[in-house]
Amino acid sequence: MEVRQIEHFLAVANAANFTRAARSIHLSQSALSASIRALERELQTQLFERTTRKVALTTAGQTFRAAAYRILGQIATAREELTDLHDLSAGTLAVGTVQTLTVVDLPAVLAQFNQRYSHIRIALHEATTAELVRSVQAAELDVAYVALDASPLPRDLTLLRGYEEDLAVVTAHDHPLATRAETTLAELADYTFVEFSAGTGLQTVIETLCAEAGLHRRIGFRATQMGQVLALVGHGLGISIVPSSIAEGSGLATVPIGPASPSRKLALVSRSARPSNPAARAFLELLAPRISS
């Protein structure tokens, strides 16, 4: 039995017509019929009931169709695994990330990947969560670090790893809040805000938190780059709510939010738990020790 015979069988089974099946696999109808007859002789059973109007599977044919799919799937997996042994000498790893990612030292991870797989080109794309989700769905990205809000993750994406990060208030050093050991969201009503406006994710999480606390923010400035947000805050033009790690590394005053510190969620997502791109699988394997720890 040859692989092509199994493929011929499935073409006829799916088309229920020899003419359409032959056309779909670019084979003459006589050659396709001969291939099916040879397969039936080898299996010593009739796979199709042939009439002048249609072709239908026999009971044996229905049983063999399920087995045929399994066989072709196993062959594809074997080929993929064998290719993996020799691949990673070329190819591309496409990774996306929101600009506020700090829970993972992505530059360090990519540097380690580059050192191990120096022939793989790394394409890093920074965008909003909505754009990253669309890019992963469209197979433009292998994996992406996205910021989550209350919206569910699309069904065609797989969450590979979830992260959680506390939020804090960042202010200029001469701001009235700068020396506070802690503040509540309600206490921020009298201050002007600098808002990080970069689509869904962090922005919508903060909007939800403030709404739940009854805080109606007075927004004086909006910026789409976190660096610009921090610069505006540093010049005393307002305060901002940002991830704690960003606040602590900004050189500005960081004020924790109490009594229960609010947080935002991030996730590493892909189209599958086992991406089809060998470079993406190698990237996830590199992350495995970090994830388990």
From TrEMBL:
One of its GO terms (molecular function) is DNA binding. Keywords: DNA-binding, Transcription, Transcription regulation. GO terms for cellular component: protein-DNA complex. The keyword Cell membrane does not apply. Residues 1-58 form the HTH lysR-type domain. It comes from the Bacteria. Belongs to the LysR transcriptional regulatory family. This is DNA-binding transcriptional LysR family regulator. It comes from Antricoccus suffuscus. The lineage of its organism: Bacteria, Bacillati, Actinomycetota, Actinomycetes, Geodermatophilales.
